[in-house]
Amino acid sequence: MATRDIYFSFTKNTFLGVPVVAQWLTNPTRNHEVAGDLFNQLMRDDPSTVNGAEILMLGEMLTLPQNFGNIFLGETFSSYISVHNDSNQVVKDILVKADLQTSSQRLNLSASNAAVAELKPDCCIDDVIHHEVKEIGTHILVCAVSYTTQGGEKMYFRKFFKFQVLKPLDVKTKFYNAETDEVFLEAQIQNITTSPMFMEKVSLEPSIMYNVAELNSVNQDGECVTTFGSRAYLQPMDTRQYLYCLKPKKEFAEKAGIIKGVTVIGKLDIVWKTNLGERGRLQTSQLQRMAPGYGDVRLSLETIPDTVNLEEPFHITCKITNCSERTMDLVLEMCNTNSIHWCGISGRQLGKLHPSSSLCLALTLLSSVQGLQSVSGLRLTDTFLKRTYEYDDIAQVCVVSSVIKVES
Q1: Which fold has domain 8-166?
Q2: pLDDT for the residue 52
Q3: Beta partners for 84?
Q4: CATH class of 297-400
């Protein structure tokens, strides 16, 4: 028995239980699509179907050309394979194997590697394979069938189906470091396919050191409404921006080491659906940002008013952190500027500060000039190394006339 006596058809991406024909293995004596003809015949024989529906709308959409087309990274490749005995003889020891060859590996997608004992005439062996596409580039589906004829002859044939896996999204990220340890992440996601996407979920999975708050919704009448509106579709070549705020967990924020060097933020998890309901999912690699360098001593503001009265004292709270690996003996000096004047004793001893330790200082100032003024003039001197650290423009306050009442 020649190889033309047995063949198999093959369909891609089953949708609502109806196979979508993408490619098939041919019998040299047959020149038609098996699954496509069966679907069209069922449409014609169904009394509830309008005449010609098999070539209109959904019917035509489901019977795709033989070419595979493109599949996008993150989608699930699903295929239905049917091996059919087209002869009048029983064949034995039928083994069907489906492998997917990529640029880096070869994957076995067959549900079972066991041979079927026999296959009677006009009978089929069916298999459904699934694979989540994780590589970009050329993929080749290798379908192979081996069997034994009644005369004991070993037969074997195989076919190759090539398709491209493309990149569906372009993701760009930007980091913004606040004066505190908070980090703001802006993610720009662009649809680079030719079809609209339904963005089902875009979330940030933070690293173990951070808590995350999504800033992509607003409160309207007590309800949380997305900033993108009621329609979550992303048209081709359109870009959408997502914003997240990350704050170190308390147990890590108290350690100065968390703010030094490269810090792992987390990874984005993106889930979408195409116009036929096919789902795709991508996860970025771990996002990293270069944390700002603070040197040996970090000075940050814990509290400061937004608006103050002219020539009236106001209070701020500073936090000093020893980021070095040695103990420091610090002295605080306060230097007046043309607009900002410090109230208190300059040159006072702050005492010893151990590595990764912090202390808070309550300081009093007043401004002699109206407008937006910068808080400057703090100096910290380490008496052990005789090294002075200068801190200018650490914050800004709006100074108004004392006649105007400042809202609390």
Answers
A1: Immunoglobulin-like (2.60.40)
A2: 55
A3: 7, 124
A4: mainly beta
Span 146-173, pLDDT tens digits: 888 888 888 888 888 888 888 999 999 9
Domain 169-291 part of CATH 3.30.870.10 = no
CATH 2.60.40.10 domain position(s) in the chain? 8-166, 297-400
Contact yes or no for 76/133 (Cβ under 8 A): yes
